[in-house]
Predict the structure.
Amino acid sequence: MIKIQSSLREKTGSSSSRRLLKSGLIPAAIQTKSEKPLYIKIDAKEIEREYAKGNLLSTLAKITIDKKETEAIIRRIDTDPVTENIIHIEFIDCKNTKEVKIKSKIKFINIEKSAGIKRGGFFHVTKRHIALICNKENIPNFIEINVEKLTVGSKIRLSDIILPEGSKLAPEKDDLIASIMGRGLKAEEEDSKTEEVAEDKESKDEKPKDGEKK
């Protein structure tokens, strides 16, 4: 859990947001089920420091808004396309709920030990976060996936993941997480063809020529 100090915004809109960013503050909104969104402003240095750790999308936040407290999970972070600095954050209020939907970071291990990589394959990642539904008191910081046994052509899908106890997958359209692709498969096929040609040549060399005794 992280603690965030904030205050309500007097004005909203793009021009107001730009002024906040220039003054070292980040505009944000907390979406609630029963009330209108709460528009707040947060110290940029404080939130950028947490963002750099890489787990902000899977971290419960205790937000103080002008001395009042609530709990929330980040739904979305908008960044500047050039500087990659945060320009807006959208929170979901979860003070009165037990389960939350979060995006947990995927940590791939033993990539260099993979048979597919050793054969010249390329490790292609299509998802770096996965959506989970879990208890807000037991949010996993990351999901670890071991790729050591993968060969060229292997694919990792959501159904292949072993989830922590108390967590379940949130519905997603695309279930592909990563795969090993590239020249490795061609290399194996070429090696196989080379071996076949060598065997054929060796077999022909062993056959006696006309006039020769067996």
